[in-house]
Design goal:
This protein is 53% helix and 9% strand. The chain is built from ten helices and five strands, in the order H-H-H-H-H-E-E-H-H-H-H-H-E-E-E. The strands form two sheets. The protein has a three-stranded antiparallel beta sheet with strand order 3-4-5. Strands 1-2 form a two-stranded antiparallel sheet. The radius of gyration is 21 Å and the shape is globular.
């Protein structure tokens, strides 16, 4: 693949810094509310394998970045891909923090954004690098009227990738519906014990809920796997070795096994009354609770 033209003569791509390693969220401060402390403890106990697997996926991403940090990889394609990847990585890390704090209602918005960023990293490199170059050509210069640096918003949305990738599409659609102010989504997120006889809403509650923890961590595992799938196929952009491919395949196998686990809470798209709806399986607050299904 020929390198893209330089948007500005002589413009170079600086080294992109990244963490040395990923660290799972630490125990909350002693001043944190009791519910937050309990959510952290129970998440470690009930979902410990998911957390460890998530950490492995985040570390593998950093390993790829480290292998590709030499100056010869610093093309404008590299800049476009890694800048979007950086935002996705930070969103996944932040979402994991929220899960361990019992702040489940805040997770879908981060997951939705991460889906768009993962898809954008793939699509801009494979199909639309000219969009990135065109944005650079038209901006990053002084705006005399406003006495400002004209950066430009650079509108971009990788809709075709989100539509074509079945796994990414499922997470994106579910997280999008749960992130919006839909009445049913709000009820199951902040009033999961509600029924037709009683509305039991809470306000900023951080109590542990095993189903929401499993669903959220399942999304994060899937997005880790999808981001790695994007990265290992960028052989003209990143330093991808056979060992990296083997590590990705092993990780993807582990994720598939984890998400297929019996008794795990999950969200499935179903047809109901001629409409596409969401069926939540194994919805319960505690692991010992009676699992139920919820139709959204």
């Amino acid at each position: 693949m020929a390198p893209p033209p330089l948007p500005t003569p002589g413009q170079r791509v600086s080294a992109i810094s990244f963490p040395d390693a990923y660290t799972l969220p630490a125990r909350p401060d002693a001043s944190a509310p009791a519910a937050v402390q309990d959510a952290y403890r129970q998440t470690q106990f009930v979902c410990g394998s998911d957390l460890r697997r998530f950490a492995e996926g985040m570390d593998l991403q950093l390993r790829i970045l480290n292998d590709s940090s030499h100056s010869r990889y610093r093309t404008h394609t590299y800049a476009a891909v890694v800048s979007l990847w950086s935002r996705a990585y930070a969103g996944l890390a932040d979402a994991c923090m929220l899960v361990t704090r019992g702040s489940y209602a805040s997770v879908p918005a981060l997951v939705r954004s991460a889906c768009e960023l993962v898809a954008a990293g793939y699509q801009v490199e494979h199909d639309e690098m000219a969009e990135y170059v065109g944005w650079l050509l038209g901006h990053l210069k002084p705006d005399e009227e406003h006495k400002a640096l004209d950066v430009g918003l650079g509108h971009y949305f990788a809709g075709s990738t989100l539509a074509a990738d079945a796994q990414l599409r499922l997470v994106y659609r579910a997280a999008s519906d749960l992130a919006r102010p839909n009445f049913g989504a709000t009820l199951v997120e902040v009033g999961p014990e509600s029924n037709n006889l009683r509305l039991a809403y809470t306000f900023a509650d951080a109590s542990f809920h095993v189903a929401w923890a499993e669903i959220a961590l399942g999304w994060l595992l899937r997005l880790c796997e999808r981001q790695l799938a994007v990265a290992v196929h960028l052989v003209d952009v990143l330093n991808i070795t056979p060992e990296t491919h083997d590590a990705y395949r092993s990780y993807a196998t582990q994720v598939e096994a984890a998400l297929a686990g019996a008794g795990r809470a999950s969200i499935e798209e179903v047809d109901a009354g001629g409409f596409k709806r969401w069926l939540v399986h194994n919805f319960r607050r505690q692991p010992s609770g009676a699992p139920k299904k919820v139709l959204l």
